[in-house]
């Protein structure tokens, strides 16, 4: 079990071993459910299913994109897992349109885990089961960790998709220097790796549609600060 | 400084550099002591060494002051100024009076004058036909560099070139490139380390460099190694 989890975590980190289209697979392996989808949506990124293990999974995503309600939206807006063990007999959330729409599909249990990176909401992982089902606390914990690992990848993917990435990176040597300095400040603020600190700056520039240099200068003058609360990274104001 | 003192200082500087080259060294550290020696023995107010990256843009790798204003002027110079011209032609370029700088150097001229720089001299870091960067000397007073000073500047530039490119690798273009990248890469880590120290101590980025340098000197460790330890959080300054 732990072995499968470690393997899945490594797989999510490597774009070479697991292409985006196969991102749902590590979740299937660890959670031992066949129906998993990984999708991006929310304020920052376009609504899109990156990977779905089967047709029903991708249909569940489509329904939620269309209705803008359902487990994945709840997971992302609350920043916490959504665990619906039996939609039909013991619904725990109120999603009238979603519940109605999935009635014709073999969906009894639904679980959703938010995909975030730092303070950026990026999407969710949806898991469904045709029969009522439960997840052990350990499985929930592992799914949350895997979704966090996926967040790093999803953000990189969103950044890559920018038509003109110079929007973010004013590539002059002086800007790079300032960005490296800010990377140092952020990694000290959060105790994260230089790569993650850099990605946070990039994500910030992306979210605000500004340049990395601008964000870096604000980090250096203290007007943008990151703080860690529990396991969550937040922007302090 | 009297002529005798200067001569003594120059002899010492070359002896130290020769020792360093024999004993194994840290490139950024070597270049840092070179710019400091230049400023001292050549009677200039600031000096900087810039190296060309993979995109043939010049990046500041060492400078007598880490103030961002100086770095910015050096970068402007690298875009259109004596430094760029020296890099492009492989010859020393003098700008004895910045107020009379040609129109196409206007951004550099404005930056230099705002910083109180009146004269600039650029000497190429050159190995036969390959120019890898420039040594730049900034003076607060207008006027040409004395011929002997220019001669010393060229000798120091040659030492810097040898320090960057190990003698045995000179024929291999790819290796030259990778060693240039390594020198520029250590600069990246130094910038990150400045950010870390600035955050942890609540001091400015400029002051943070002094703290890192002092630690490196006190503990007889190369600057790049100290910077890496700071970024990896193995030492707290």
For this entry, give a set of tags:
heterodimer; A: 237 residues; alpha+beta; Beta-Lactamase; Arc Repressor Mutant, subunit A; 5-stranded antiparallel sheet; two-stranded antiparallel ribbon; elongated; B: 237 residues; 2 domains; 57% helix; globular
Uncertain segments of chain B are none
Distance between the termini of chain B: 35 Å
* Whole-number total of structural domains of chain B: 2
Shape of chain B: globular
What name does CATH use for the topology of the largest domain in chain B?
Answer: Beta-Lactamase
Instruction: Give me the CATH architecture of the largest domain in chain A, please.
Output: 2-Layer Sandwich
Oligomer: heterodimer
Helix content range of the residues of chain B, please?
55-70%
Mean pLDDT of chain B: 87
Kindly report the greatest chain-chain contact and the residue count on each side.
Answer: A-B, 19 and 25 residues
Shape of chain A: elongated
**Rg from Cα of chain B:** 17 Å
Structural class of chain B: alpha+beta
Cα-atom Rg of chain A, whole angstroms?
19 Å
Q: What strand order characterises the main sheet of chain B? A: 2-1-5-4-3
CATH class category of the largest domain in chain A: Alpha Beta
Give the tally of structural domains of chain A.
2
Q: Number of DSSP helices of chain A?
A: 9
Major sheet size, sense and barrel closure of chain A: 5 strands, antiparallel
């Amino acid at each position: 079990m732990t072995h499968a989890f470690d393997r899945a975590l490594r797989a999510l980190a490597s774009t070479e071993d697991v292409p985006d289209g196969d991102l749902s697979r590590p979740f299937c392996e660890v959670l031992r459910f066949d129906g998993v989808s990984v999708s991006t949506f929310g304020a920052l990124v376009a609504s899109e299913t990156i990977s779905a293990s089967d047709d029903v999974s991708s249909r569940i995503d489509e329904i939620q994109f269309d209705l803008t309600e359902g487990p994945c939206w709840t997971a992302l807006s609350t920043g916490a897992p959504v665990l619906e063990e039996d939609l039909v007999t013991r619904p725990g959330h109120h999603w009238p349109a979603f519940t109605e729409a999935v009635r014709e599909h073999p969906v009894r249990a639904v679980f959703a885990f938010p995909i975030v990176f730092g303070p950026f909401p990026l999407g969710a992982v949806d898991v469904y089961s045709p029969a009522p089902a439960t997840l052990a606390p350990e499985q929930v914990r592992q799914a949350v960790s895997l979704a966090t690992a996926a967040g790093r990848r999803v953000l990189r993917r969103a950044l890559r998709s920018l038509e003109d990435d110079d929007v973010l990176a004013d590539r002059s040597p002086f800007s790079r220097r300032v960005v490296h300095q800010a990377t140092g400040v952020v990694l000290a603020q959060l105790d994260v790796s230089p790569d993650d600190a850099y990605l946070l700056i990039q994500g910030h520039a992306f979210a605000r549609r500004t340049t990395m240099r601008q964000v870096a200068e604000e980090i250096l003058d203290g007007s943008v600060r990151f703080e860690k609360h529990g396991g969550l990274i937040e922007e302090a104001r | 400084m009297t002529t005798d003192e200067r001569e003594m200082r120059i002899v010492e500087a070359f002896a130290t550099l020769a020792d360093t080259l024999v004993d194994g060294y840290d490139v950024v550290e070597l270049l840092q002591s070179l710019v400091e020696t230049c400023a001292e023995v050549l009677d200039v107010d600031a000096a900087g060494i810039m190296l060309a990256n993979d995109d043939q843009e010049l990046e500041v790798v060492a400078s007598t002051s880490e103030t961002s204003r100086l770095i910015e002027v050096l970068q402007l110079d690298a875009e259109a100024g004596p430094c760029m011209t020296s890099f492009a032609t492989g010859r020393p370029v003098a700008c004895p009076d910045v107020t009379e700088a040609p129109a196409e150097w206007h951004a550099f001229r404005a930056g230099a004058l705002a910083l109180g720089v009146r004269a600039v001299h650029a000497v190429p870091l050159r190995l036969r036909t390959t120019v890898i960067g420039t040594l730049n000397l900034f003076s607060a007073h207008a006027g040409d560099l004395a011929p002997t000073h220019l001669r010393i500047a060229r000798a120091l530039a040659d030492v810097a070139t040898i320090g960057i490119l190990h003698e045995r690798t000179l024929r291999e273009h790819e290796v030259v490139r990778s060693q240039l990248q390594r020198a520029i890469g250590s600069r990246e880590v130094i910038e990150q380390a400045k950010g870390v120290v600035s955050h942890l101590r609540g001091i400015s980025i400029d002051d943070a460099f002094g703290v890192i340098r002092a630690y490196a000197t006190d503990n007889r460790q190369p600057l790049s190694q100290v910077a890496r330890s700071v970024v990896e959080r193995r030492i707290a300054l």
